[in-house]
Amino acid sequence: MKDLSVTVKSNKKIAENIYMITFTLPEGAGAMHGGQFVNLSTGNGANLLRRPLGVCMVEGDDVSVCYQVKGGGTKYLSTVEPGRKLQALLPCGNWFDVDDYEHIVVIGGGVGIFPLIATIREHYRTKSFYSYIGFRNIDAVCLYNELAKSKKLTITTDDGSYGERGNVVSAYLKDAANVPADVIIACGPPVMLKVLKQKLEEEKIKVPCFVSLEERMGCGMGACLVCVCKTSDGGNARVCRDGPVFNINEVQL
Ligand SMILES: Cc1cc2nc3c(=O)[nH]c(=O)nc-3n(C[C@H](O)[C@H](O)[C@H](O)COP(=O)(O)OP(=O)(O)OC[C@H]3O[C@@H](n4cnc5c(N)ncnc54)[C@H](O)[C@@H]3O)c2cc1C
Ligand code: FES
Hints:
This protein has helices at about 70-75, 115-125, 145, 170-175, 190-200; strands spanning about 1-15, 20-25, 35-40, 50-60, 60-70, 85-90, 105-110, 130-135, 150-155, 165, 185, 210, 230, 235-240, 245. The protein contains 5 helices and 15 strands. Strand 13 (about 230) and strand 14 (about 235-240) form a beta hairpin. The protein has 2 domains: about 1-90, Translation factors (Elongation Factor Tu (Ef-tu), domain 3); about 105-210, Rossmann fold, CATH 3.40.50.80. The chain is an alpha/beta fold and about 250 residues long. The strands form 3 sheets. It has a 7-stranded mixed β-sheet with strand order 10-9-8-7-11-12-15, sandwiched between helices. Strands 1-2-5-4-3-6 form a 6-stranded antiparallel beta barrel. Strands 13-14 form a two-stranded antiparallel sheet. It is globular. The longest helix is centred in the last third of the chain and has 13 residues, at about 190-200. It binds flavin-adenine dinucleotide and FE2/S2 (inorganic) cluster. Flavin-adenine dinucleotide binds next to strand 4, strand 5 and helix 1.
């Protein structure tokens, strides 16, 4: 993990309220994998804490992350012009380790799709991805060409304005008997992950499942304990350092 001053190459809107920022590293930061994140300054001195954003694309020394404008930090970030310098701590956390699996089911919703795209990009030439991707509505749909690197892609929207109407967990369950899954990887809103865990238990689907959790963060490097989540055995884990990717059975959702 390195704390680098990076130069913004581009920062553009890719869907309603969603931006992709690409920055160039001054030097290689080593390998980066889907699930890992960047703790990025926002460019505004008033937002001292950095924002954790999942690595989405890595091309040479250029790294892209995508973000939804939510509060003050991401709003300011959306105004940052190419050429600006930002501070980036990267790569942070663990990743979706799919090395031992060939057939991978991907379940993603909202901004959770970005780290999953990094995993698909990394492995789609040698492994098969069966992706179930949920957006709020047609205006939120983005990075279709990246998602389409999957062997099978199902897109859902809450209102049916694009793809199937409904949620991604139901879409996967409908297909589960016909999809050869060695592992499931998932990232999305807490309610999506909670439902996924319940349904896998109810349907007795024993496929290993790894989820990436989203918690508010401070340091992003394991020191401040802002990001602690509860583990299934009643203990605690730091999402930034012990995660953000966990076996779904090891964490309380
Ligand atoms: C590992 C990880 C990966 C993430 N990847 C992405 C991504 O790829 N794209 C994306 O759009 N969002 C992602 N998020 C969520 C993103 O970090 C928050 O939406 C963002 O920090 C909100 O900042 P803000 O200034 O807009 O909101 P504010 O509410 O103004 O932020 C105030 C404080 O709360 C923290 N905060 C607020 N919401 C969250 C949240 N949901 N998670 C963590 N910290 C939060 C901020 O870091 C800041 O310290 C990720 C979160 C985590 C933990
Ligand atoms: S954000 Fe500081 S310990 Fe995780």
